[in-house]
Model the fold of this input.
Amino acid sequence: MHDRTAAVNEMTPAQSKRLKIGQRVAWHDSADDQGTVSANDWSGVRIEWDNGKNQFFHHNNMAEVEVAKPNLV
Done:
């Protein structure tokens, strides 16, 4: 079965390009899996996750990432 609500929340490339350095993000809207945008350029976004990992995503590959909701930060 396909979860249709996931498609509604997917970050688009246009939304990804508007992320600001220092902005908090979450993996699948998780309160336990969050990070901070450390770079954003023409090709993608770098996220420093709270677990110490550093990861680069192309703008068209940000579907798993969401802007962290204020109550999650």
